[in-house]
């Protein structure tokens, strides 16, 4: 337990941004107001993930007006996971908070997170109490993904979010993970450490719509599963064993009917079997291809992101 209150404790807050210009100024006022109520120094690290609106101009303005704000602008839209990585690799503090820039992660909970951290937790996770705002295909897709991910990897992420506080030791361990296909929630869960949870109801977005398309969510889900579990490859092998046993049984039956003079034409059965086996083979090739694609992305060795511009004081 961190039983000694240290007034010199510092906090870094990392916020990835993408086309948040319409509401960013108001959002930052709410976040800064919550941080000003804390009894510790803080720094905001704002990462513009190649926004096409005026997000970066607003970040620059805040950096000029407030010495505790640091801005990074990526050279293009690399995705939220890469923007998070950029912020985490710049953040310096005894504790580091990661949150979204649309107020769906309530800033007022940061004080409670710090209390849990000072009580001894290395990671304090914001857990979604309910997902009322994720109706329709998004909600159903999220539930399906988390069930698959938990079943295949063994890491429980149901209700998890990117709203987290990490001790600097956890940040150092995260930085040592050199993979390029990133999934922050899974990587954080893999690290372990002593953890605490704070439940919260997801409020409405401060403005705009989610920047995630259906295809981007599918790609993220596939990347996350292949990054943390090799179970799909074993399922491919097991399906091969199952079809081999089925083929042997079918061969025995066919030979018996032939020798006993009971053989009949089986054109429909043959066609159905060919279609079934062909479908399974293509599915297996797709699963194997996903892992090969992940290997390909890793061995290229390209950087996770490229910073085009910075604003505010250096870290």
Task: Describe the protein.
50% of the residues lie in helices and 16% in strands. By secondary structure, the chain is an alpha/beta fold. Strands 7-5-6-4-1-2-3-8 form an 8-stranded mixed beta sheet, sandwiched between helices. α5 packs parallel to α8 and α9 runs antiparallel to α10 (267-300). It is elongated and about 90 Å long. The two termini are 28 Å apart. Residues 1-5 have low confidence and may be disordered.
Mean pLDDT: 77
Number of strands: 8
What quaternary form is this? single chain
Task: Kindly report the spatial arrangement of strands forming the biggest sheet.
Answer: 7-5-6-4-1-2-3-8
Give me the number of helical elements: 10
- Please compute the radius of gyration using only Cα atoms: 25 Å
The profile of the biggest β sheet is: 8 strands, mixed
Distance between the termini: 28 Å
């Amino acid at each position: 337990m961190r039983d000694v209150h240290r007034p010199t404790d510092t906090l870094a807050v990392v916020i990835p941004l993408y086309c948040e210009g319409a509401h960013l100024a108001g959002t930052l006022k709410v976040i800064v107001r919550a941080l000003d109520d804390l009894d510790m120094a803080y720094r905001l690290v704002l990462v513009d993930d190649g926004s096409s609106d005026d997000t970066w101009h607003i970040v620059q303005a805040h950096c000029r007006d407030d010495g505790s704000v640091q801005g990074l602008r990526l050279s293009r839209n690399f995705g939220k996971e890469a923007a998070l990585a950029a912020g985490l690799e710049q953040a310096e503090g005894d504790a580091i908070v990661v949150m979204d820039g649309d107020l769906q992660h309530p800033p007022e909970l940061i004080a409670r997170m710090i209390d849990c951290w000072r009580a001894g937790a290395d990671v304090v996770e914001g857990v979604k109490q309910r997902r009322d705002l994720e109706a329709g295909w998004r909600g159903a897709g999220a539930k399906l993904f988390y069930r698959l991910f938990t079943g295949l990897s063994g890491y429980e992420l149901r209700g998890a979010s990117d709203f987290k506080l990490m001790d600097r030791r956890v940040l150092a361990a995260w930085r040592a993970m050199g993979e390029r296909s990133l999934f922050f929630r899974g990587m954080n869960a893999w690290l372990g450490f002593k953890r605490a949870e704070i439940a919260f109801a997801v409020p409405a977005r401060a403005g705009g719509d989610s920047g995630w398309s259906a295809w981007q969510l599918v790609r993220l889900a596939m990347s996350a599963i292949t990054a943390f579990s090799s179970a799909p490859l074993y399922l491919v092998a097991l399906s091969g064993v199952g079809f081999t046993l089925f083929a042997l049984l079918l061969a025995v039956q066919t030979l018996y009917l032939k020798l006993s003079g009971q053989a009949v034409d089986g054109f429909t059965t043959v066609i159905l079997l060919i279609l079934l086996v062909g479908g399974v083979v293509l599915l297996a090739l797709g699963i194997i291809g996903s892992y090969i694609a992940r290997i390909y992305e890793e061995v290229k060795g390209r950087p996770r992101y490229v910073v085009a511009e910075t604003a505010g004081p250096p870290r």
